[in-house]
Specification:
The structure is a homodimer of 331-residue chains. The longest helix of chain A has 14 residues, at 127-140. Chain A contains nine helices and 15 strands. With 331 residues, chain A is of the alpha/beta class. The first copy, chain A, has two domains: 2-122 and 300-329, Medium-chain alcohol dehydrogenases, catalytic domain (Quinone Oxidoreductase, Chain A, domain 1, Alpha-Beta Complex), CATH 3.90.180; 127-275, NAD(P)-binding Rossmann-like Domain (Rossmann fold, 3-Layer(aba) Sandwich). In chain A, the strands form three sheets. In chain A, strands 3, 4, 5, 6, 7, 14 and 15 form a seven-stranded mixed sheet that branches. Chain A has a six-stranded parallel sheet with strand order 10-9-8-11-12-13, sandwiched between helices. Chain A has helices spanning 48-52, 127-140, 158-167, 179-188, 202-209, 224-230, 260-264, 281-293, 310-318, and strands at 2-8, 21-27, 36-44, 73-80, 90-93, 100-103, 109-110, 147-151, 171-176, 193-196, 214-219, 233-241, 268-271, 301-305, 325-329. The A-B interface holds A 51, 57-59, 222, 226, 235, 241-244, 247, 253-260, 262-273, 276 and B 51, 57-59, 222, 226, 235, 241-244, 247, 253-260, 262-273, 276. Strand 13 (268-271) of chain A pairs antiparallel with strand 13 (268-271) of chain B, so a sheet runs across the interface.
Chain lengths: 331, 331
């Protein structure tokens, strides 16, 4: 049985191109004692993967050249030599950009796909959803009546941030690219307002949308968006720095001009990665499942078909071409 | 009796000049019932005053044109119509850039000048010393063996930060301007190392001085110094943003290029002002008095003579011409 997979062919300088990837076919590795074989049905594409492609220390080990690209997957156990897993178990884990994964099961979690479609466990009920929960509720800690702003508001993380903010009684304002995304954020997800940064007057539009300033800013983007938010932050406000996607392909870093707001307004800024807070997963996930099951949190997916289309879909994600959670359907 | 005082004559654009101030003489205001008259013996000059001179919202109300410049003072009660104060009491408070202050006594505190010279209660035992204590021990919370870096290391705040860090078993590294200040920081104050940013190779020198990276950064300066520190921060490190003196006279703000380190290293950044944490004063001050009395914390003062020299001394402070705490001796 063949396993089609995507490996890192070369490191990008600036924007990622399809030439940075190579699609390979290799025989499936048969599971040894203690291992299982998983057929991956869904692959998650996420901005953090861009950082792994660089030859620099990031929060995780870099991706080595020639290795299968790192990535979250959802699939089904098709062979088991590990008593903790049975054939037919549905599992999520980090099996990478490939059709099959052979693994001892470390970091693999069974899911109950009767509560939500399997793909949701890579998005709203997976790493992105828990990231939103941790960054908003643990780091920003908004109070009812406060104003929460989130960038990349229609994305897998941002869309959940704003909806939780509304559930907690906050004013939720999104920043997104394009009218269609902003309409979705306001009309379908229930945000109070959304700024289309592509309209070219981010500062003025954001100012108008936050008449009482910003108490919590959930940052996914960086660059000019960060400066615009810093200009509107209130005294004793909080910023959860979750991502800086505008910078990942930049060859010259953007210079943040309004750092002084952090002093003047006594802002708390906290960079975070959800994998540092695994102990919160057990608290966050049941809440998220409940909100999704009851329709209080909605989500949208952009689905590419087949492993060979993963590189193109990933590049689209970095450019903001996706709408909601970017997935690859593998089978 | 005449009261010589310094008022704000005009708002600076960019660098402060002596023309932004006006020296006036007016009769001393006689205390009414409930008030006291204080003869100010010492005036404290501090970087925060620059922010008050702007026509923009900062953490405190701006200074109005024509009003006496805001400032901390130490002096002696020479007339009292308030039962809480007696003639001869030595007090510190915010009576401004003037020789005499008439006040109801709100925010005025009596000092025990038998423990230390009166001027110390404006520096190491006053707002700067408590600022160092709060920023380092409450915000950065360094553990023994960690590396603490502080900018403006020979200044009123920075010198205390590094000495407390040493008392807590940390590696203390300063950044200061010029060989004389660096020699003082290492040889007299006991820091482990000091980088002279004027030597022109801040990045390389800082890298060499922190072989294990930076766990706590106490920021007084901003600009290139901040970028240099961000490049060396460790995972889960902390930054206390106390001041950004390099930016106070800038007409174009410096663009911070390494903001991404906050995400990658999951740094906590906290802007703070000691006056927000007045409840900590009662805990910090006795510790500081003990350390100063026992010689564990040393300090240095630069003293200008006479109220009419306050503007010039303040401009010197903004340019880093002072060495240690900048004071004006008023009588």
């Amino acid at each position: 049985m063949d396993n089609k997979r995507v490996v890192l062919a070369s490191r990008p300088s600036g924007w990622v191109t399809e030439a940075n990837f190579r699609i390979e076919t290799a025989p499936v590795a048969n599971p040894k004692d203690g291992e299982i074989l998983v057929k991956n049905l869904w692959l998650s594409l996420d901005p953090y993967m861009r950082g792994r492609m660089n030859d620099t220390k990031s929060y995780a080990a870099k991706q080595e050249i020639g290795e299968v690209m790192v990535g979250g997957t959802a699939g089904e156990v098709i062979e088991s030599k590990n008593p903790k897993f049975a054939v037919g178990d549905q599992v999520v884990g980090m099996l990478g950009w490939q059709q099959y994964g052979t693994t001892a099961g470390v970091g693999l979690n069974k899911i109950d796909a009767s509560r939500a479609p399997m793909s949701a466990f890579l998005g709203v009920l997976g790493m992105p959803g828990v990231t939103a929960w941790v960054g908003l509720l643990e780091i920003c800690q908004p109070k009812a009546g406060e104003t929460v702003v989130v960038s990349a508001a229609s994305g897998a993380v941002g869309s959940v941030v704003g909806q939780i903010a509304k559930l907690k009684g906050c004013r939720a304002v999104g920043i997104a690219g394009g009218k269609a995304k902003c309409d979705y954020v306001v009309k379908e997800l229930g945000f109070d307002a959304c700024i289309d940064y592509k309209a070219g007057k981010l500062d003025a539009d954001l100012k108008a949308a936050v008449p009482n300033g910003i108490d919590c800013y959930f940052e996914n983007v960086g660059g000019e968006t960060l400066d615009a938010a810093l200009r509107r932050m209130n005294a004793f406000s909080r910023i959860a720095v979750c991502g800086l996607i505008s910078q990942y392909n930049a060859t010259e870093p953007y210079g943040v001009k309004t750092f002084q707001s952090i002093l003047t307004n006594r802002i708390k800024v906290q960079g975070f990665i959800v994998s540092d807070r695994m102990e919160l997963w057990a608290k966050a996930l049941p809440e998220l499942i409940g909100w999704v099951a009851s329709g209080k949190i909605k989500y949208r997916e952009t689905v590419a078909q087949g492993i060979e289309n993963a590189p193109k879909a990933f590049i689209g994600l970095l450019k903001g071409e996706n709408f909601g959670k970017q997935l690859v359907k593998l089978a």
